[in-house]
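Issue: ligand-bound run for thymidine-5'-phosphate - logging full I/O for the record.

Environment: standard queue, default settings, no custom constraints.

Inputs:
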Amino acid sequence: MARRKKIYEGKAKILYEGPEPGTLVQYFKDDATAFNAEKRATIEGKGVLNNRLSEFFMTGLANIGVPTHFIRRINMREQLIRAVEIIPLEVIVRNYAAGSMAKRLGLEEGMQLPRPIIEFSYKNDELGDPLVPEEYIIAFGWASQQDLDDIVALALRVNDFMSGMMMGVGIKLVDFKIEIGRIWDGDFMRLIVADEISPDSCRLWDIETGQKLDKDVFRRDLGNLTDAYTEVARRLGVMPTNNGTGGKPTLVN
Ligand code: TMP
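Outputs:
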């Protein structure tokens, strides 16, 4: 079979040309990076877990009317998505202080914020994805004021959905990052959730124990990353588990 055309390779995913115009195939690698790729590792099984988890979250979002790029999962590591024009921003939503915010403001990690706080980073690896104010975003034309209003509304809906979903399985959604893409229907432009939603791009803490179930396990050397992601998937009922059927193979669909 002819090899597919590679459109883009990022740190954790590869995009290939899709079967129809306006589509792409998103492949989830096992590679993990942190601190702007200063720290790297290959973590067996991470790609499979993130493919399934991103499918699960994006499908749930579509079911409550939040538009996403997800079309369908193709196999263990690949999903069919809509091709979008990515807005060069990391849209971060925080419910509790952690990570760079805790550091910047000298806050204790885990402090509940007065309300969800949204911030934007400019997606640029060479610059280390710097935090940018809305003024920059509009002045440099990365997004208009109207786009930003729509992005904030989308991000808050994603936050409500994800927080509720996680709360239901005993996990606190501390913060997360999404990316937004533009799609065009003729002259009409729409903004949709793109990229991925997975434990790579969220902070997830067990409500009871505070145990970290996200990429901080890798960033901070806290244990086995695959075990953490598997636990998230297991609680959500996403991955087929070995449920004591005597080792009989389970159908994976
Ligand atoms: P931060 O506290 O390091 O700024 O991260 C905020 C959230 O964004 C956290 O859930 C992790 C996620 N994130 C990414 O998805 N990609 C990144 O490159 C970074 C720095 C953070």
